[in-house]
Design goal:
Blueprint lengths: L2 E5 L2 E4 L4 E8 L6 E8 L6 E6 L5 E3 L7 E6 L4 E6 L8 E9 L16 E2 L3 E6 L1
Parallel strand pairs: 2-11
Antiparallel strand pairs: 1-3, 3-8, 4-5, 4-9, 5-6, 7-8, 9-10, 9-11
């Protein structure tokens, strides 16, 4: 069964950095597309960054140049390096995965495109 376990969240001051990790199991990692999503209180879940099974990445505009998504296919771990954090980045961050088949590049930041989710890790950025 598919399992996604996030870690690495915490509290930082604005301008600081965090690296989130998502350890995946229960599926053929290299055939899946994966993404990071976040949800702040009272807001809808939004896509932050996604990566395809052969490496193409996509980011939401608000994190471009600050966040980097990467994947260690040997260890089945997805990362999100977050630099220059802002208070607006405060949210619960979730890892998601699904087969890349039928998942177009343009839809990879859409939460409904993914069937498998982790439990989330909280990121809090103070000003």
């Amino acid at each position: 069964q598919v399992q996604l376990v996030e870690s690495g969240g915490g509290s930082v001051q604005a301008g600081g950095s965090l690296r989130l990790s998502c350890t995946a199991s229960g599926f053929t990692y290299i055939t899946y597309c994966m993404g990071w999503f976040r949800q702040a209180p009272g807001k809808e879940r939004e896509g932050v960054a996604a990566i395809g099974n052969i490496g193409p990445t996509t980011y939401t505009d608000s994190v471009k140049g600050r966040f980097t998504i990467s994947s260690d296919n040997a260890k089945n771990i997805l990362y999100l390096q977050m630099n220059s954090l802002k208070p607006d980045d405060t949210a619960m961050y979730y890892c998601a995965a699904d087969s890349c088949l039928g998942l177009p590049y343009t839809g990879r930041l859409t939460p409904s495109a993914y069937n498998y989710w982790g439990q989330g890790t909280q990121v809090t950025v103070s000003s």
